[in-house]
């Protein structure tokens, strides 16, 4: 079969690899029908995630059809259409029992495209298949469902819920890529007073308006000015970091008000400066986190009911074999206007 293989920092190749097989009774082998590329994949290619070894098949966001199941799998059968979660859960360890699937001690957590072969391939082996997939309703399309694998639950859980967005809050989202847009969309479930989007790219600021931002800013200086004007100089109630570079984290810390909350969602490959000399006296809460995907069933119901439109994140579509072209478009989003790219078999 064909798969997108990581060859070390800056190197990727769509090439022939062995088709996966059942290795554990809890496994399923799934034929991939729709897959997307994540900003985390780009961080891996930059060398920001050294745990990913050369030779690894990348990707952790996909929809597919079950081809084969292990002997202990009871909730799936061949032919079932499933969403493959970006987080794998054993369902038995102390973390999984409390819904903290991202910290799974039983062999799960973020493993697909990280420590085991991922989903940017024609077939994928899914460990703990009963607890790490979601059966899809027939009226939810592959392309609407695929954004539920990662960006929607990540933005919702690590950004909106961790940030404790409340009615009438001023929320600033720094970074209007797919995660930032998903944070803007799901923040509206809590009726914030204002949502401010900050990004360097005019195309992404325009997208942010379409997803619900009522104010935008293209520079750090502009962001500080508009947030100050909206809040009488106090600052944002919640600042959501959705990029993963030092400057954006430090900007969030500047934009938040005393008693406010900085929710870091971005994947960081370099240290950021924590200005405790300024923050200690301001009662600022800072949270970080890997998504648990505990919200995925709820978000899936909202997509099925038409309350969330997963399709609107998709700007570019490719055949599965056009993986190289899809990466080129996604990596150059500033020029191409790409939000999410989807590849379909």
TrEMBL record:
Gene3D superfamilies from the UniProt entry: Medium-chain alcohol dehydrogenases, catalytic domain, NAD(P)-binding Rossmann-like Domain
Domain Enoyl reductase (ER) per the UniProt entry, residue ranges: 7-343
Cofactor needs: Zn(2+)
Signal peptide per UniProt: none
SUPFAM superfamilies: GroES-like (SSF50129), NAD(P)-binding Rossmann-fold domains (SSF51735)
Keywords attached to this entry: Metal-binding, Oxidoreductase, Zinc
Top-level taxon of the source organism: Bacteria
Record PROSITE patterns: ADH_ZINC
GO molecular function, one term: oxidoreductase activity
InterPro entries, sorted: ADH-like_C, ADH-like_N, ADH_Zn_CS, ER, GroES-like_sf, NAD(P)-bd_dom_sf
Protein family according to the UniProt entry: Belongs to the zinc-containing alcohol dehydrogenase family.
Protein name: Alcohol dehydrogenase
Protein source organism: Lentzea albida
Taxonomic lineage from the root: Bacteria, Bacillati, Actinomycetota, Actinomycetes, Pseudonocardiales
